[in-house]
Design goal:
Distance between the termini: 83 Å
Strand order of the largest sheet: 1-2-3-4-5
Strand content: 15-25%
Shape: rod-shaped
Number of strands: 5
Length: about 150
């Protein structure tokens, strides 16, 4: 009687690996997950950029009030000299998400604007006046755009 050697592990007749069908199922599942996750992610990025722009508008309003205190007028105030012309602050090139501007409606009033560089159909251009009135030009409401 001879000794028979038995190999442990996979029997010789079974193939080891991943079939094409299994690979296609995994690729399809990853595609579905990406299709669901990307719009949500982009929405959060837009909300984050919008929050930064709102903060910059509030800083610009403080700058305008300081300018008025020193000069007794809003006319001549420049956001670019204060470093408040883009959001996020100090960004350049493709890093700019919002352009900030001001228009002196009179020597005693102003309107600040934060215009998105890319399309933001929900809130559009955000505005802030000297009286603290918050506005937007998109399809959403000003209260929703400024609260989020």
């Amino acid at each position: 009687m001879g000794l028979q050697i038995v190999k442990s592990g996979v029997p010789p007749f079974r193939q080891v690996g991943v079939t094409l069908i299994e690979l296609l199922i995994v690729v399809a599942l990853v595609g579905i997950l990406a299709a669901v996750a990307m719009p949500s992610y982009e929405s959060y990025v837009r909300k984050g950029n919008r929050a930064d722009a709102k903060g910059m508008l509030l800083q610009a309003a403080q700058y305008m009030e300081q300018y008025y205190t020193l000069n007794n007028t809003f006319v001549g105030a420049s956001l670019s000299t204060a470093g408040l012309s883009v959001s996020p602050k100090g960004a350049s090139g493709s890093g700019i998400k919002y352009n900030l501007s001001t228009s002196a409606t009179s020597s005693t009033g102003f309107t600040l604007q934060a215009a998105p560089v890319s399309t933001d159909s929900e809130c559009g251009t955000l505005t802030l006046t000297d009286a603290g009135v918050q506005g937007e030009s998109g399809s959403g409401s000003a209260a929703d755009c400024w609260q989020r």
